[in-house]
Automatic annotation (TrEMBL):
SUPFAM superfamilies: Homeodomain-like, Tetracyclin repressor-like, C-terminal domain. This is Transcriptional regulator, TetR family. PROSITE patterns: HTH_TETR_2. Keywords: DNA-binding, Plasmid. One of its GO terms (molecular function) is transcription cis-regulatory region binding. Pfam families: TetR_C_7, TetR_N. Gene3D superfamilies: Tetracycline Repressor, domain 2. Residues 13-73 form the HTH tetR-type domain. InterPro entries: Homeodomain-like_sf (IPR009057), HTH-type_TetR-like_transc_reg (IPR050109), HTH_TetR (IPR001647), Tet_transcr_reg_TetR-rel_C_sf (IPR036271), TetR_C_Proteobacteria (IPR039536). It comes from Xanthobacter autotrophicus (strain ATCC BAA-1158 / Py2). Residues 36-55 bind DNA.
Protein backbone atom coordinates (compact mmCIF):
# COMPACT_ATOMS: atom_id res chain seq x y z
CA UNK A 1 0.00 0.00 0.00
CA UNK A 2 1.49 3.32 -1.08
CA UNK A 3 1.75 6.43 1.10
CA UNK A 4 -1.14 8.39 -0.51
CA UNK A 5 -3.47 5.43 -0.01
CA UNK A 6 -2.47 5.11 3.64
CA UNK A 7 -3.01 8.83 4.14
CA UNK A 8 -6.51 8.60 2.65
CA UNK A 9 -7.36 5.66 4.90
CA UNK A 10 -6.16 7.55 7.98
CA UNK A 11 -8.17 10.56 6.89
CA UNK A 12 -11.29 8.44 6.47
CA UNK A 13 -10.81 6.88 9.90
CA UNK A 14 -10.48 10.35 11.44
CA UNK A 15 -13.55 11.72 9.66
CA UNK A 16 -16.24 10.82 12.24
CA UNK A 17 -14.25 12.50 15.01
CA UNK A 18 -13.71 15.59 12.87
CA UNK A 19 -17.43 15.78 12.16
CA UNK A 20 -18.27 15.50 15.86
CA UNK A 21 -15.73 18.17 16.79
CA UNK A 22 -17.23 20.51 14.20
CA UNK A 23 -20.72 19.63 15.41
CA UNK A 24 -19.71 20.57 18.94
CA UNK A 25 -18.74 24.05 17.78
CA UNK A 26 -21.94 24.54 15.78
CA UNK A 27 -24.25 23.24 18.51
CA UNK A 28 -22.45 25.37 21.09
CA UNK A 29 -22.80 28.46 18.91
CA UNK A 30 -26.40 28.03 17.72
CA UNK A 31 -28.11 25.46 19.95
CA UNK A 32 -29.60 22.22 18.70
CA UNK A 33 -32.64 23.56 16.83
CA UNK A 34 -30.81 26.29 14.91
CA UNK A 35 -27.77 24.22 13.95
CA UNK A 36 -27.61 23.14 10.31
CA UNK A 37 -25.65 20.09 9.23
CA UNK A 38 -24.62 22.07 6.14
CA UNK A 39 -22.62 24.34 8.46
CA UNK A 40 -21.11 21.37 10.26
CA UNK A 41 -20.03 19.95 6.89
CA UNK A 42 -18.55 23.31 5.87
CA UNK A 43 -16.38 23.36 9.01
CA UNK A 44 -14.98 19.95 8.13
CA UNK A 45 -14.68 20.63 4.41
CA UNK A 46 -17.04 17.85 3.32
CA UNK A 47 -20.52 17.61 1.86
CA UNK A 48 -23.66 17.21 3.93
CA UNK A 49 -24.00 13.75 2.40
CA UNK A 50 -20.70 12.74 3.99
CA UNK A 51 -22.17 13.41 7.43
CA UNK A 52 -25.15 11.19 6.63
CA UNK A 53 -22.75 8.45 5.55
CA UNK A 54 -21.50 8.24 9.16
CA UNK A 55 -24.55 9.45 11.11
CA UNK A 56 -28.10 8.73 9.99
CA UNK A 57 -29.74 11.84 11.43
CA UNK A 58 -29.04 15.19 13.08
CA UNK A 59 -30.23 13.64 16.34
CA UNK A 60 -27.59 10.93 16.02
CA UNK A 61 -24.90 13.55 15.38
CA UNK A 62 -25.90 15.38 18.55
CA UNK A 63 -26.06 12.18 20.59
CA UNK A 64 -22.66 10.94 19.45
CA UNK A 65 -21.14 14.41 19.84
CA UNK A 66 -22.04 14.46 23.56
CA UNK A 67 -20.39 11.09 24.08
CA UNK A 68 -17.35 12.06 21.99
CA UNK A 69 -16.53 15.23 23.92
CA UNK A 70 -17.47 13.78 27.34
CA UNK A 71 -15.20 10.75 27.23
CA UNK A 72 -11.84 12.60 27.50
CA UNK A 73 -13.17 14.64 30.44
CA UNK A 74 -14.35 11.50 32.23
CA UNK A 75 -11.06 9.68 31.58
CA UNK A 76 -8.95 12.53 32.91
CA UNK A 77 -11.07 13.09 36.01
CA UNK A 78 -11.19 9.41 36.94
CA UNK A 79 -7.44 9.09 36.36
CA UNK A 80 -6.87 12.05 38.65
CA UNK A 81 -9.00 10.48 41.40
CA UNK A 82 -7.18 7.14 41.05
CA UNK A 83 -3.78 8.84 41.39
CA UNK A 84 -4.59 10.74 44.61
CA UNK A 85 -2.34 9.87 47.54
CA UNK A 86 -1.68 10.98 51.10
CA UNK A 87 -4.07 11.84 53.95
CA UNK A 88 -7.67 11.87 52.88
CA UNK A 89 -8.09 15.54 53.76
CA UNK A 90 -5.31 16.33 51.30
CA UNK A 91 -6.94 14.14 48.67
CA UNK A 92 -10.28 15.80 49.18
CA UNK A 93 -8.82 19.30 48.83
CA UNK A 94 -6.91 18.32 45.69
CA UNK A 95 -10.06 16.79 44.24
CA UNK A 96 -12.12 19.90 44.95
CA UNK A 97 -9.50 22.10 43.29
CA UNK A 98 -9.43 19.79 40.29
CA UNK A 99 -13.21 19.51 39.95
CA UNK A 100 -13.84 23.23 40.19
CA UNK A 101 -11.05 24.31 37.89
CA UNK A 102 -11.25 21.48 35.38
CA UNK A 103 -14.98 20.76 35.16
CA UNK A 104 -16.60 24.06 36.07
CA UNK A 105 -14.16 26.35 34.25
CA UNK A 106 -13.30 24.12 31.30
CA UNK A 107 -15.33 25.04 28.24
CA UNK A 108 -16.29 21.56 27.07
CA UNK A 109 -17.65 20.68 30.50
CA UNK A 110 -19.71 23.86 30.59
CA UNK A 111 -21.14 23.26 27.14
CA UNK A 112 -22.00 19.62 27.84
CA UNK A 113 -23.90 20.79 30.91
CA UNK A 114 -25.69 23.39 28.79
CA UNK A 115 -26.60 20.75 26.18
CA UNK A 116 -27.96 18.33 28.76
CA UNK A 117 -30.05 20.97 30.51
CA UNK A 118 -31.36 22.61 27.35
CA UNK A 119 -32.02 19.45 25.34
CA UNK A 120 -32.63 16.86 28.06
CA UNK A 121 -36.39 16.76 27.44
CA UNK A 122 -35.76 16.15 23.73
CA UNK A 123 -33.11 13.48 24.40
CA UNK A 124 -34.09 11.61 27.61
CA UNK A 125 -32.18 8.50 26.57
CA UNK A 126 -29.03 10.57 26.06
CA UNK A 127 -29.33 12.03 29.58
CA UNK A 128 -29.84 8.58 31.08
CA UNK A 129 -26.87 7.18 29.20
CA UNK A 130 -24.69 10.10 30.31
CA UNK A 131 -25.72 9.39 33.89
CA UNK A 132 -25.01 5.67 33.52
CA UNK A 133 -21.71 5.90 31.61
CA UNK A 134 -20.12 8.94 33.25
CA UNK A 135 -21.77 10.08 36.49
CA UNK A 136 -22.41 6.71 38.14
CA UNK A 137 -18.81 5.42 37.77
CA UNK A 138 -17.38 8.75 38.91
CA UNK A 139 -19.64 8.89 41.96
CA UNK A 140 -18.59 5.35 42.82
CA UNK A 141 -14.94 6.51 42.87
CA UNK A 142 -15.93 9.28 45.29
CA UNK A 143 -17.81 6.79 47.46
CA UNK A 144 -14.75 4.55 47.56
CA UNK A 145 -12.59 7.48 48.67
CA UNK A 146 -14.97 8.37 51.51
CA UNK A 147 -15.16 4.72 52.57
CA UNK A 148 -11.37 4.44 52.59
CA UNK A 149 -11.15 7.60 54.70
CA UNK A 150 -13.58 6.12 57.20
CA UNK A 151 -11.65 2.86 57.32
CA UNK A 152 -8.41 4.79 57.90
CA UNK A 153 -10.00 6.62 60.83
CA UNK A 154 -9.71 10.05 59.22
CA UNK A 155 -13.39 10.42 58.41
CA UNK A 156 -16.27 9.56 60.67
CA UNK A 157 -19.03 7.19 59.61
CA UNK A 158 -21.47 9.48 57.87
CA UNK A 159 -24.58 9.35 55.68
CA UNK A 160 -22.46 11.20 53.09
CA UNK A 161 -21.12 7.75 52.19
CA UNK A 162 -24.47 7.13 50.51
CA UNK A 163 -24.49 10.49 48.78
CA UNK A 164 -21.08 11.31 47.28
CA UNK A 165 -23.00 13.72 45.07
CA UNK A 166 -22.51 16.18 47.95
CA UNK A 167 -18.83 16.45 47.04
CA UNK A 168 -19.51 16.88 43.34
CA UNK A 169 -22.61 19.08 43.46
CA UNK A 170 -20.95 22.45 44.25
CA UNK A 171 -18.94 22.18 41.02
CA UNK A 172 -22.21 21.65 39.17
CA UNK A 173 -23.70 24.63 40.96
CA UNK A 174 -20.81 26.84 39.90
CA UNK A 175 -21.11 25.53 36.36
CA UNK A 176 -24.82 26.42 36.21
CA UNK A 177 -24.08 29.80 37.83
CA UNK A 178 -21.66 30.64 35.00
CA UNK A 179 -24.12 29.42 32.39
CA UNK A 180 -26.78 31.72 33.79
CA UNK A 181 -24.77 34.80 34.69
CA UNK A 182 -21.45 34.52 32.84
CA UNK A 183 -19.36 37.53 33.97
CA UNK A 184 -22.27 39.60 35.28
CA UNK A 185 -22.24 38.13 38.80
CA UNK A 186 -18.80 36.71 39.46
CA UNK A 187 -17.89 34.30 42.23
CA UNK A 188 -14.44 34.15 43.79
CA UNK A 189 -13.60 30.55 42.92
CA UNK A 190 -10.84 30.16 45.52
CA UNK A 191 -13.05 31.43 48.34
CA UNK A 192 -15.87 29.22 47.07
CA UNK A 193 -13.59 26.17 47.19
CA UNK A 194 -12.29 27.14 50.66
CA UNK A 195 -15.86 27.42 51.95
CA UNK A 196 -16.86 24.07 50.46
CA UNK A 197 -13.76 22.38 51.89
CA UNK A 198 -14.49 23.88 55.29
CA UNK A 199 -18.03 22.51 55.24
CA UNK A 200 -16.97 19.07 54.02
CA UNK A 201 -14.19 18.65 56.56
CA UNK A 202 -16.42 19.80 59.41
CA UNK A 203 -18.90 17.14 58.36
CA UNK A 204 -16.49 14.34 57.50
CA UNK A 205 -13.46 14.53 59.77
CA UNK A 206 -13.25 12.91 63.17
CA UNK A 207 -11.94 16.10 64.79
CA UNK A 208 -13.41 18.78 62.57
CA UNK A 209 -11.56 21.09 60.21
CA UNK A 210 -7.83 21.55 60.62
CA UNK A 211 -7.01 24.84 62.33
CA UNK A 212 -4.61 25.65 59.51
CA UNK A 213 -6.40 24.87 56.24
CA UNK A 214 -3.25 25.59 54.25
CA UNK A 215 -1.71 22.42 55.68
CA UNK A 216 -4.31 20.45 53.75
CA UNK A 217 -3.84 22.31 50.50
CA UNK A 218 -2.49 20.36 47.55
CA UNK A 219 -0.95 21.79 44.42
CA UNK A 220 -3.26 21.35 41.48
CA UNK A 221 -1.62 19.77 38.42
CA UNK A 222 -2.34 21.62 35.23
CA UNK A 223 -4.82 19.95 32.93
CA UNK A 224 -3.42 18.52 29.75
CA UNK A 225 -6.56 19.50 27.85
CA UNK A 226 -7.93 22.90 27.01
CA UNK A 227 -10.30 24.36 24.51
CA UNK A 228 -10.14 28.05 23.66
Amino acid sequence: MNAPTKARMRRKADRPGEILEAAFEEFAKHGYAATRLEDVAKRVGVTKGTIYFYFETKERVFDEMIRHVSRPIFDEVTSFVAALEGPFGVRLRALLDFLFRFIAEERVGREVMRFLIAEGARFPDLVERHHREFLVPFLERLREMIAAGIKAGEFRATPALRYPELIFSPALLLNVWWLLFDDRHQIDVKMFIDAQFDLLMDGLSMGGLESEPKRLSAKLPRSGRSRA
